[in-house]
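Database export, one record per block. Field names are fixed; values are copied verbatim from the stored entry.
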Amino acid sequence: MSSHDAPLSPVADPSGAAPDRDDLGDPGDFAVQIADQVESFLLAVSEIARGDDPDAAIPYLLLEISQILLAGGRLGAHEDILPADRYEPDLGPEPDIDDMRLGLAVMLEPVDVYNEVFDPYEPRTAAVPARISDDLADIVADLRHGMAHYRAGRTTEAMWWWQFSYFSNWGSTASACLRALQSLVSHIRLDQPLPELNGLDTDDALSDDGLTLEEEAGKVMAEELGIHLGLRPAR
Protein backbone atom coordinates (compact mmCIF):
# COMPACT_ATOMS: atom_id res chain seq x y z
CA MET A 1 0.00 0.00 0.00
CA SER A 2 1.16 3.50 -0.70
CA SER A 3 0.93 6.25 1.88
CA HIS A 4 -1.00 9.40 1.06
CA ASP A 5 1.16 12.40 0.31
CA ALA A 6 0.85 15.67 2.19
CA PRO A 7 -2.30 17.57 1.21
CA LEU A 8 -2.13 20.38 -1.28
CA SER A 9 -2.92 23.92 -0.26
CA PRO A 10 -6.47 25.07 -0.95
CA VAL A 11 -6.81 26.82 -4.30
CA ALA A 12 -9.29 29.59 -4.89
CA ASP A 13 -11.46 29.77 -8.01
CA PRO A 14 -9.12 31.34 -10.63
CA SER A 15 -11.98 33.47 -11.98
CA GLY A 16 -12.38 35.16 -8.61
CA ALA A 17 -16.06 34.23 -8.55
CA ALA A 18 -17.79 32.77 -5.54
CA PRO A 19 -17.67 28.95 -5.41
CA ASP A 20 -20.52 27.04 -7.02
CA ARG A 21 -22.35 25.83 -3.94
CA ASP A 22 -23.88 22.94 -5.88
CA ASP A 23 -20.32 21.65 -6.33
CA LEU A 24 -18.43 22.70 -3.24
CA GLY A 25 -21.38 22.64 -0.86
CA ASP A 26 -22.34 19.06 -1.68
CA PRO A 27 -19.24 16.88 -2.27
CA GLY A 28 -21.45 13.94 -3.22
CA ASP A 29 -22.89 15.71 -6.25
CA PHE A 30 -19.47 17.02 -7.24
CA ALA A 31 -18.00 13.52 -7.02
CA VAL A 32 -20.75 12.08 -9.23
CA GLN A 33 -20.11 14.74 -11.87
CA ILE A 34 -16.35 14.14 -11.89
CA ALA A 35 -16.81 10.37 -11.98
CA ASP A 36 -19.21 10.69 -14.93
CA GLN A 37 -16.64 12.76 -16.84
CA VAL A 38 -13.88 10.29 -16.05
CA GLU A 39 -15.95 7.29 -17.09
CA SER A 40 -17.01 9.01 -20.32
CA PHE A 41 -13.35 9.68 -21.16
CA LEU A 42 -12.26 6.12 -20.40
CA LEU A 43 -15.01 4.64 -22.56
CA ALA A 44 -14.38 7.04 -25.44
CA VAL A 45 -10.61 6.50 -25.58
CA SER A 46 -11.11 2.72 -25.40
CA GLU A 47 -13.47 2.90 -28.37
CA ILE A 48 -11.14 5.14 -30.37
CA ALA A 49 -8.19 2.82 -29.68
CA ARG A 50 -10.13 -0.09 -31.21
CA GLY A 51 -9.49 1.55 -34.57
CA ASP A 52 -13.00 1.18 -35.96
CA ASP A 53 -13.02 4.81 -37.18
CA PRO A 54 -9.37 5.84 -37.54
CA ASP A 55 -10.15 8.75 -39.84
CA ALA A 56 -11.98 10.55 -37.04
CA ALA A 57 -9.50 9.68 -34.28
CA ILE A 58 -7.69 13.02 -34.06
CA PRO A 59 -10.72 15.34 -33.68
CA TYR A 60 -12.40 12.88 -31.32
CA LEU A 61 -9.27 12.70 -29.16
CA LEU A 62 -9.02 16.49 -29.16
CA LEU A 63 -12.60 16.67 -27.91
CA GLU A 64 -12.12 14.01 -25.23
CA ILE A 65 -8.88 15.52 -23.89
CA SER A 66 -10.51 18.96 -23.77
CA GLN A 67 -13.41 17.57 -21.76
CA ILE A 68 -11.30 15.63 -19.26
CA LEU A 69 -9.17 18.72 -18.71
CA LEU A 70 -12.36 20.54 -17.73
CA ALA A 71 -12.84 17.93 -15.01
CA GLY A 72 -9.20 18.40 -14.01
CA GLY A 73 -9.65 22.16 -13.83
CA ARG A 74 -12.61 21.72 -11.52
CA LEU A 75 -10.57 19.41 -9.31
CA GLY A 76 -7.69 21.88 -9.35
CA ALA A 77 -9.91 24.77 -8.26
CA HIS A 78 -11.57 22.70 -5.52
CA GLU A 79 -10.39 22.74 -1.92
CA ASP A 80 -8.18 19.87 -0.79
CA ILE A 81 -9.88 16.50 -0.81
CA LEU A 82 -8.50 14.52 2.11
CA PRO A 83 -8.73 10.72 2.38
CA ALA A 84 -10.06 9.15 5.55
CA ASP A 85 -7.12 6.76 5.99
CA ARG A 86 -3.39 7.33 5.91
CA TYR A 87 -2.75 4.43 3.56
CA GLU A 88 -4.36 3.83 0.22
CA PRO A 89 -6.34 0.55 0.08
CA ASP A 90 -4.72 -2.09 -2.11
CA LEU A 91 -6.41 -2.39 -5.50
CA GLY A 92 -4.46 -5.44 -6.65
CA PRO A 93 -2.82 -5.66 -10.08
CA GLU A 94 -3.35 -2.71 -12.39
CA PRO A 95 -5.21 -3.48 -15.65
CA ASP A 96 -2.94 -3.91 -18.67
CA ILE A 97 -3.14 -1.01 -21.11
CA ASP A 98 -0.46 -2.11 -23.57
CA ASP A 99 -3.03 -3.12 -26.19
CA MET A 100 -4.63 0.31 -26.00
CA ARG A 101 -1.25 2.04 -26.21
CA LEU A 102 -0.26 -0.03 -29.24
CA GLY A 103 -3.59 0.48 -30.97
CA LEU A 104 -3.30 4.24 -30.60
CA ALA A 105 0.34 4.25 -31.73
CA VAL A 106 -0.46 2.29 -34.90
CA MET A 107 -3.46 4.46 -35.70
CA LEU A 108 -1.62 7.76 -35.14
CA GLU A 109 1.59 6.85 -36.98
CA PRO A 110 3.44 8.87 -38.29
CA VAL A 111 2.09 11.86 -36.32
CA ASP A 112 2.34 10.20 -32.91
CA VAL A 113 5.65 11.87 -31.93
CA TYR A 114 5.74 15.55 -30.98
CA ASN A 115 7.95 18.00 -29.09
CA GLU A 116 7.22 18.60 -25.42
CA VAL A 117 8.62 20.90 -22.75
CA PHE A 118 7.90 19.39 -19.33
CA ASP A 119 7.96 22.60 -17.30
CA PRO A 120 7.40 25.92 -19.11
CA TYR A 121 8.75 27.78 -16.06
CA GLU A 122 12.05 25.91 -15.95
CA PRO A 123 14.73 28.16 -17.55
CA ARG A 124 16.30 26.95 -20.78
CA THR A 125 14.41 23.66 -20.78
CA ALA A 126 15.01 21.78 -24.00
CA ALA A 127 12.10 20.16 -25.81
CA VAL A 128 12.05 16.38 -25.82
CA PRO A 129 10.11 13.93 -27.99
CA ALA A 130 6.87 12.58 -26.59
CA ARG A 131 4.12 10.36 -27.98
CA ILE A 132 0.40 11.04 -28.02
CA SER A 133 -0.25 7.30 -27.61
CA ASP A 134 1.93 7.14 -24.48
CA ASP A 135 0.25 10.24 -23.07
CA LEU A 136 -3.23 8.83 -23.55
CA ALA A 137 -2.30 5.50 -22.00
CA ASP A 138 -0.77 7.24 -18.97
CA ILE A 139 -3.86 9.40 -18.49
CA VAL A 140 -6.10 6.35 -18.76
CA ALA A 141 -4.00 4.50 -16.18
CA ASP A 142 -4.30 7.35 -13.67
CA LEU A 143 -8.03 7.77 -14.18
CA ARG A 144 -8.72 4.03 -14.06
CA HIS A 145 -6.94 3.82 -10.72
CA GLY A 146 -9.31 6.35 -9.22
CA MET A 147 -12.31 4.75 -10.90
CA ALA A 148 -11.49 1.43 -9.23
CA HIS A 149 -11.80 3.15 -5.84
CA TYR A 150 -15.01 4.89 -6.91
CA ARG A 151 -16.64 1.66 -8.07
CA ALA A 152 -15.64 0.02 -4.80
CA GLY A 153 -17.59 2.68 -2.93
CA ARG A 154 -14.53 4.64 -1.75
CA THR A 155 -15.67 7.96 -3.16
CA THR A 156 -13.39 10.18 -1.09
CA GLU A 157 -10.39 8.02 -1.92
CA ALA A 158 -11.22 8.24 -5.63
CA MET A 159 -11.62 12.01 -5.51
CA TRP A 160 -8.37 12.41 -3.57
CA TRP A 161 -6.54 10.32 -6.13
CA TRP A 162 -7.99 12.14 -9.14
CA GLN A 163 -7.15 15.52 -7.61
CA PHE A 164 -3.64 14.55 -6.48
CA SER A 165 -2.73 12.81 -9.74
CA TYR A 166 -4.12 15.77 -11.72
CA PHE A 167 -1.50 17.98 -10.09
CA SER A 168 1.28 15.40 -10.12
CA ASN A 169 0.87 13.68 -13.49
CA TRP A 170 -2.18 13.41 -15.69
CA GLY A 171 -3.00 17.12 -15.75
CA SER A 172 0.30 18.16 -17.32
CA THR A 173 0.29 15.10 -19.58
CA ALA A 174 -3.20 15.88 -20.85
CA SER A 175 -2.27 19.54 -21.37
CA ALA A 176 0.71 18.58 -23.52
CA CYS A 177 -1.36 16.05 -25.45
CA LEU A 178 -4.06 18.66 -26.04
CA ARG A 179 -1.50 21.06 -27.49
CA ALA A 180 -0.21 18.39 -29.87
CA LEU A 181 -3.70 17.38 -31.01
CA GLN A 182 -4.76 21.00 -31.46
CA SER A 183 -1.68 21.59 -33.58
CA LEU A 184 -2.49 18.58 -35.75
CA VAL A 185 -6.05 19.76 -36.34
CA SER A 186 -4.76 23.26 -37.12
CA HIS A 187 -2.32 21.87 -39.71
CA ILE A 188 -5.21 20.02 -41.33
CA ARG A 189 -7.69 22.88 -41.30
CA LEU A 190 -5.15 25.43 -42.52
CA ASP A 191 -3.81 23.03 -45.17
CA GLN A 192 -0.27 23.37 -43.84
CA PRO A 193 2.16 20.43 -44.02
CA LEU A 194 4.01 19.57 -40.86
CA PRO A 195 7.36 21.31 -40.39
CA GLU A 196 10.52 19.25 -40.19
CA LEU A 197 10.61 17.24 -37.00
CA ASN A 198 14.39 17.59 -36.57
CA GLY A 199 14.75 13.88 -36.23
CA LEU A 200 12.89 13.37 -32.94
CA ASP A 201 13.18 9.61 -33.22
CA THR A 202 13.07 9.39 -37.02
CA ASP A 203 16.73 10.21 -37.85
CA ASP A 204 15.78 11.43 -41.32
CA ALA A 205 15.24 7.86 -42.50
CA LEU A 206 13.76 7.37 -45.94
CA SER A 207 10.40 5.77 -46.54
CA ASP A 208 9.79 3.31 -49.37
CA ASP A 209 8.99 6.06 -51.87
CA GLY A 210 12.16 8.05 -51.08
CA LEU A 211 10.58 10.67 -48.84
CA THR A 212 12.01 11.43 -45.43
CA LEU A 213 9.72 10.46 -42.60
CA GLU A 214 9.17 14.15 -41.90
CA GLU A 215 7.97 14.66 -45.45
CA GLU A 216 5.92 11.50 -45.27
CA ALA A 217 4.22 12.75 -42.11
CA GLY A 218 3.32 16.00 -43.83
CA LYS A 219 2.04 14.08 -46.83
CA VAL A 220 -0.17 11.90 -44.65
CA MET A 221 -1.55 14.91 -42.82
CA ALA A 222 -2.34 16.82 -45.98
CA GLU A 223 -3.49 14.05 -48.29
CA GLU A 224 -5.08 11.49 -45.99
CA LEU A 225 -6.19 12.73 -42.60
CA GLY A 226 -7.55 16.06 -43.81
CA ILE A 227 -9.58 14.50 -46.58
CA HIS A 228 -10.96 11.55 -44.60
CA LEU A 229 -11.91 13.73 -41.66
CA GLY A 230 -13.87 15.98 -43.96
CA LEU A 231 -11.94 19.00 -42.76
CA ARG A 232 -10.94 20.09 -46.26
CA PRO A 233 -11.94 18.96 -49.75
CA ALA A 234 -9.88 16.52 -51.81
CA ARG A 235 -7.98 18.08 -54.72
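Remark 1: The chain is about 55% helix and 5% strand.
Remark 2: The mean pLDDT is 77.
End of record.
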